């Protein structure tokens, strides 16, 4: 029914008055400072067992005590073949090999299972498995998101850092410190320096916004993403709910939100150079390559016609978005000014680099800022992380290291050299990486000035042919000698690009902190009182800094507060996540929300006991994994007993192991591993499964020609945001827009169709068939037995063997491979 006129009027009066609440902030919040997760971690002794020959370690004492109270009994232990498959997938994300299964089955030592767990914890694959779980929480992806979804080609080192950190089992306090402040640590190598990518792991709108309100909103959204990720990953708190008002359910005030925002207000989305691991070798090789390239460039550029700005007729080719040479009679200059009068599309002009080459036996680029030259400009595109004045003479190429004018179709850049210098050549381009053609200067003039300050025009577009859309195409076939020089030039430039003293990593740039105000209703244009850098006041120990605190000190203080043993949240959150990894459900079923809206712990004493052990172990995870995996609770069979199901259908009290479907990554990796095609190379840039494109809005069309280069583990697949693997993305891969502390498990027709008919699956089924034939020959009966052992880790039953034999004879070995890869036994871990 429509509202009555008096009701409409009441709403209008309320909105006009600022939409006040009668009781805001809510007092008290529905969870107060006495909420269970905010209390100090309690010391609990495991319950005393009355007559218990089932328990294997203290974890079991907590479980069996609860089962007894619920009038339940645990399942018996799973058989060895089930156990090795379960624990190997849990710790490595890969299936055990037939030989590993056989070795475990015949190992009659009392500690055979303990030895198995220790071997798996020491495997490099452990780090890959653990990292995948953390990367979900850290919302890691290799593109920015939003409508353009531009790529982050330098984000991959964070993934490698996380893998190494888990394999080395670095203490939790160090893990936190590195992700918030690795740049401040004197002993941090290049990979550790990459750890601060956690701070900028989320979405970021690279388009920018010229309005003040729009720019403020974008900045506020970036920092909100960071606060949300910090709360979800380390604290189990929904901090972002206090952005516009006090949290409606938890004791987090709006002042807390903006206090934490002030701690991180100097973090900005951008690449950051980190020291290369072999900087000395790179430096030496770079010097020789640079000298050879300068000689080669000079030789090639000497074939360019001289610029004659007052010629009045066409004497040179049109401008090229990539690289243009302005050659003139040698002169001595102290300053160079490049003035743009129009661009190819009428919008702000862009230069990715302006080079001034000396007229010397060994030519050098005198324009470089590192050589002491200083750049100035008529204006610079506002509020941009990548289009900055210093990029015009930093020696780095590409749109992401460029200058853009703030004026439509015009602007000037000036380079002042440290001393009068003989020059004979200027080289410039809009984008040397050849990704962008817009914003190219098409009408311009270049002036030089000596020490007297007198300017003269030395080159211009007046003697160039008019711009055309295909100006970047080669105008004619080069001579064989020139073609050879061009090929050598291309090789040298590629080599030079890989020899910098530093590597660019998408790990954030840190600047003087923004002044942070508490924003009434979250409105970015309504500045409230100045926020004090601080933590959540309901979380002990207290964290409050002076508003004058420098930027690095803020991040260090936040990291130390999170890792402080007196902070009760992180240890609980971390051990709960480990428990979830092995049981499919945490002791707290909402791993990112330990507040009022989250689930209470099913076994609160056990949660605190594990958190205490975690802290006693120095915050290392492998001992916690080991404790859990060696427990009788974990070793149970998955048998579904009707009596227990009737009392606890969701298995909250852990009377059995709940079967779990493989996640996307272990599923893909297991197919490759069993087919004999898995490439186990670790680290480095991810493999690319998409058609290449240079669109402003990146389009992710799947490639049809995937092969062995793409058969590495799925964690090494280049991961764009909001774009999933065309086959395995259907298996509930997070889109990385937000932290994903727990993956859901859906069942769809597309999953079945992808596993049955996708090109990937058919290819791997062919490889499995070849693998089986190479091992056992052409007898279908023996082939069936070997295929079962490779894919399912067991021998077939007589009925299965006969059915598989008949299938092979009728439809070939590939048909059996497809059937096995689509079986529930392969897809699920018991």
Describe how the helices and strands are arranged.
Elements: H1 5-16, H2 58-69, H3 80-92, H4 98-106, H5 112-121, H6 124-137, H7 156-168, H8 172-181, H9 190-193, H10 212-235, H11 254-263, E1 267-268, E2 272-275, H12 279-301, E3 324-343, E4 350-351, E5 353-358, E6 374-377, E7 403-404, E8 411-429, E9 441-449, E10 455-460, H13 480-497, E11 502-505, E12 509-510, H14 551-563, H15 568-583, H16 604-616, H17 622-630, H18 642-647, E13 660-661, H19 664-675, H20 749-757, H21 759-776, H22 780-792, H23 798-811, H24 813-821, H25 824-827, E14 828-829
Antiparallel strand pairs: 1-12, 2-11, 3-8, 3-9, 4-7, 5-8, 6-8, 9-10, 13-14
Helix pairs in contact: 3-5, 5-17, 6-7, 8-14, 12-13, 15-16, 15-17, 19-21, 20-21, 21-22, 21-24, 22-23, 22-24, 23-24
Summarize this structure as a short list of keywords or feature phrases.
single chain, 830 residues, alpha+beta
Summarize the entry for a quick read:
This protein is an alpha+beta fold and 830 residues long. The chain has helices at residues 5-16, 58-69, 80-92, 98-106, 112-121, 124-137, 156-168, 172-181, 190-193, 212-235, 254-263, 279-301, 480-497, 551-563, 568-583, 604-616, 622-630, 642-647, 664-675, 749-757, 759-776, 780-792, 798-811, 813-821, 824-827; strands spanning 267-268, 272-275, 324-343, 350-351, 353-358, 374-377, 403-404, 411-429, 441-449, 455-460, 502-505, 509-510, 660-661, 828-829.
Q: Roughly what is the average pLDDT, rounded to an integer?
A: 94
Question: Distance between termini?
Answer: 54 Å
Give the structural class.
alpha+beta
How much beta, percentage-wise? 5-15%
Question: What is the C-alpha radius of gyration, as a whole number of Å?
Answer: 32 Å
Largest β-sheet summary: 6 strands, antiparallel
Q: Per the principal axes of the C-alpha atoms, what is the gross shape?
A: globular
Q: Which stretches are poorly predicted, pLDDT < 50 over at least 5 residues?
A: none
Q: What assembly state would you assign to the polypeptide chains in this entry? A: single chain
- How many DSSP H or I helices? 25
Number of strands: 14
In which range does the helix fraction lie? 25-40%
